[in-house]
Task: inverse folding
């Protein structure tokens, strides 16, 4: 795998900006986030509608702007706006999630298909999309990659896809 920096690192909310900041610093890159990216997330219809607009604008730019064609772009996104059957139902008739906007339901060769919802308990996965040609609107490949943490971060949660985060024995956490 190449260690070249990506063409861009995009974030969508204050939370994702905070998550993406260390990798942007490691590559000495500016982080790109829409103005909405600097406010805490609120899970309500008004705020979700604003993030839906962000999703549509970002996807349109990624798919139509030649500066991204053939390049790697890292998106650090709110999982609810990556894939969420609930959000898609709330805004029925609109394409709102990355799953819809990037036509991930049409990707061939994915056993079980692309998940309709990103589990709330997962923060350690990457979805990798590959487009063969700039004019393609459906990825030719979709991979789910689990992130494992090395020391000194080996104690960070790294639960399986859709599985609850393990709790320390005797912690009283549920």
Result:
């Amino acid at each position: 795998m190449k260690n070249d920096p990506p063409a861009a690192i995009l974030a969508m909310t204050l939370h994702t900006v905070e998550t993406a900041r260390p990798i942007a610093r490691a590559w000495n890159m500016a982080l790109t986030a829409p103005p909405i990216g600097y406010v805490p997330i609120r899970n309500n219809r008004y705020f979700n509608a604003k993030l839906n607009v962000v999703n549509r604008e970002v996807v349109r730019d990624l798919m139509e702007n030649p500066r991204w064609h053939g390049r790697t772009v890292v998106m650090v996104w709110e999982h609810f706006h990556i894939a969420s059957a609930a959000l898609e139902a709330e805004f029925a008739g609109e394409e709102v999630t990355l799953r819809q906007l990037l036509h991930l339901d049409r990707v061939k060769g994915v056993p079980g298909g692309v998940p309709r919802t990103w589990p709330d308990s997962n923060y350690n996965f990457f979805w990798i999309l590959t487009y063969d040609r700039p004019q393609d609107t459906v990825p030719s490949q979709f991979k789910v990659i689990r992130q494992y943490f090395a020391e000194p971060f080996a104690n960070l949660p790294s639960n399986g896809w859709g599985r609850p985060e393990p709790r320390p024995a005797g912690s009283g956490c549920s």
